Request: fold
Amino acid sequence: MAVDLHVHSNVSDGAHSPRELVLMAKARGVSALALTDHDSVLGVPSALSAGEELGVSVIPGVELSTDIENAEVHILGFYIDMTSAKLHEVLDMLKKGRQERSAEILRRLKALGMDIPLEYVLSLGKEGFTGRNQIFRAMVNLGFARPDKRYGDFQRYLGKKGLAYVEHRGLSPEDAVRFVRDSGGVPVLAHPGTDIPFSFIEDLIGIGLEGIEAYHPTHSKKTTKKWLKFTKSRGLIVTGGSDFHNVSPEEPLGLGSLPVPDSIVLELTQRWLKISSVQSTPSC
Ligand SMILES: [Zn+2]
Ligand SMILES: [Zn+2]
Reply:
């Protein structure tokens, strides 16, 4: 059976509701699905109930956005404890940080001749979520960017080296790893690609990183192989997913279509049980 451990709903910047994603998973024969919205877990409860109803195993997750000097670093958190008060406190702080960051990006775009009100960007999302995908949609809707050249225009203005790029506010990569562990979850480095140095990852392993997302649509075969080898050599777990947001030419693979070994789910669950048993052991 297929598994997909990285998808986004319309609670962050995806196009489909959490329930629609679970229905899609069911239709595609996906046995386990992790909902990993950006800096938000608001979609998890409805994904869990849809999963129960439809017989799809849903893993509660989140994807935290952070930066280092030359790259973005995204940390996935699997099996986070939804009842943790600290979790909701930090995610609220990140939501505010996203709005401040979006306002700053819009100020920079205005200086480049693109006047886009923040209220308009907010109206394209739900629950006060803002992000670059929404800003890009606003740019396209207002005629400032070409939808058929998404990759080029997105990177030109909003990519890490883009003209209006602003770093994420709130958490450092190290904070994100600690935060996921403190929330009872399993921290995994998302899509490391080719820009993140091994030495930096070693530091994250030192503070509790448990795995690396080697299977990702942006990874070439060579990149996947590199991360599979590294992951194995460091005793970490491998994860993978489609990073699905929407049915579009930019995401031709779609939900559940990346070949990800289903044995990963068992390994992930074992890591989670280990972390939660350590957390619940009373100290002497
Ligand atoms: Zn990501
Ligand atoms: Zn993602």
Notes: The first strand starts at residue 2 and ends at 7.
